[in-house]
UniProtKB/TrEMBL annotation:
One Gene Ontology CC term in the entry: plasma membrane
Subunit: Part of a complex composed of FtsB, FtsL and FtsQ.
Annotated GO biological process: FtsZ-dependent cytokinesis
Task of the protein: Essential cell division protein. May link together the upstream cell division proteins, which are predominantly cytoplasmic, with the downstream cell division proteins, which are predominantly periplasmic.
Localization: Cell inner membrane; Cell membrane
Cited InterPro entries: Cell_div_FtsL
Protein name (database record): Cell division protein FtsL
Keywords, comma-separated and alphabetical: Cell cycle, Cell division, Cell inner membrane, Cell membrane, Membrane, Transmembrane, Transmembrane helix
Signal peptide residue numbers: none
Entry coiled-coil feature ranges: none
Pfam families assigned to the protein according to its UniProt record, in alphabetical order: FtsL
Record's bilayer topology term: Single-pass type II membrane protein
Family as reported in the entry's similarity comment: Belongs to the FtsL family.
Name of the encoding gene: ftsL
């Protein structure tokens, strides 16, 4: 063996060790990111379930029968009789035409 090849061997050994450490480090990062991705997917799934529940709750709270019942009981509102209803037509030029 020549004296120069010993230094080359040490340099190559250092390069191999650095590459091995780099591979281990990148795999560790990849695993951490994958775990984080799985947690975020689970969180997104939970949010989808909650969104569906909120949509269902909204449709329940906004049913016309419920709104009418609350309007009558709590706000003392009543449906207008025929004589109380008036229609107003807006013409394209901005003028209004009131009809009884």
């Amino acid at each position: 063996m020549s004296p120069g090849s010993s230094g080359l061997n040490v340099l190559l050994l250092a390069a191999v060790v650095m590459c091995a450490l780099s591979v281990v480090s990148s795999q560790h990062k990849a695993r951490k990111l994958f775990i984080e991705l799985q947690k975020e997917k689970e969180h997104a799934q939970q949010m989808e379930v909650e969104w569906g529940q909120l949509q269902l709750e909204l449709s329940t709270w906004a049913t016309p029968a419920r709104v009418e019942k609350i309007a009558a009981r709590q706000l003392q509102m009543q449906l207008p009789v025929n004589g109380q209803v008036r229609f107003i037509r807006v013409e394209p030029n901005g003028q209004t035409d009131k009809q009884p």
